[in-house]
Amino acid sequence: LRLHGRGVLALLAQGASEEALALALVAALASGNSLAVLAQGPALTLAQTLQQRLRQAGLPAALLQVQQGGSQALVGLLADARLAGVVLAAQDVATERALWRQMATDRGAIRPLITAAEVAQASQQYRFSAEQTLTINTAAAGGNEALLAGMH
Predict the structure, then answer these.
(1) What single-letter DSSP state applies at residue 14?
(2) Cβ neighbours of residue 9 closer than 8 Å, sequence gap 6 or more
(3) How do residues 60-99 score in pLDDT, each as one tens digit?
(4) Alpha-carbon distances of 7 from 22, 29, 86, 145, rounded to whole Å
(5) How many CB atoms lie under 10 A from the CB of residue 136?
(6) Which of 40, 55, 72, 116 is deepest in the core (most CB within 10 A)?
(7) Which contacts (CB < 8 Å, 24+ apart) does range 44-52 have?
(8) SS3 content of the chain, % helix, strand, coil (to 5)
(9) What is the pTM of this model?
């Protein structure tokens, strides 16, 4: 079993505290993802400050992009098949419900919506990752593992 990043995630930062936004950023980046952060007003300033701090710490610029925009800008991002999922940095039931409805109508791959409540729980860190398993069918070689490995 291997876990790897999902790819590019959209992070909706509206209404998030500095702690909640930082937690969402770190959880997504630590899992091997890139982020497109959407924010407006004070959340935009906060996201840009965190982006600057992470770049000063050595984070490559391509891994974290901050853009002005809110829920409407996210609709445009959701249309892009390269987007691997959405993260909400603040607990906003109305936005969460609207996103669930919007994402349920998407065609193509099922993408996760990772809520602020899930971001705050360490046990939910797996939500930022995709699973990959590798199995070897030794029965197909008569159960002889040495034969399967090419050894005599």
Answers:
(1) T
(2) 28, 33, 34, 35, 36, 83, 84, 85, 86, 87, 114, 128
(3) 999 999 999 866 777 788 888 889 999 999 888 988 998 8
(4) 19, 10, 11, 36
(5) 10
(6) 116
(7) 44/13, 44/68, 46/13, 46/16, 46/18, 46/21, 47/13, 47/21, 50/18, 50/21, 50/22, 50/25
(8) 45, 20, 30
(9) 0.82
